[in-house]
Design a protein that fits this description.
two-stranded parallel sheet, alpha/beta, 2 domains, single chain, elongated, Rossmann fold
Amino acid sequence: MTFALKRMYKDGIEEVIVQPSHIINGVENDNMLSAVRESGSLFKKIICSAPLLTSENDYSDVADAIHDIINSWEIEAADENSIINSKENAVLLMGHGSNHHANSAYAALEYRLRDHGMENIFIANVEAYPYIDNVIEKLEQKKYKKVILAPFMIVAGEHVKNDMAGDDDDSWKNLLVKKGFEVHCILKGLGEYKSIREIFIKHARESVQDL
């Protein structure tokens, strides 16, 4: 981050908008803000835009985007309804998670999903509560038969390929299979969906107005 800002300064750029691709205002976003503060004096004006989940409206926008994304998946539902309305299919989104207080954003988003009528969508994190075991208990209680696993991460990287959909015994896929669920994996990061990219673009455009 610091290297990029110094390069921009050398190139004669005077006004900068930094648009993070972070999902929450967590540790990585704090580090970005620190780097911007350290290099801020180099520019006439520099503004940091917002991560994906920042304002109250963001949660509603992301919930709507998730609805559209899931409806775009070519997966046959267990009944005549869509995946979102299915009584047998659950959707489990893999978040990264953080020990930062901003980790509460995942719970807030799941609450918003419920408000939008998406009762069968759950979020678990790799590195913070709620963990996969916590959510598996809910899936068993609600007697779902099929679980669709998908990343709630910008890029479908190592966590997705290994921790979520890998062949190791402790991958999320295999933990669910051991519990008797039929599992289908979506290996596509959030950044590949236009509806998510548009939220980041919206944040950047809002920051342009402050220049």
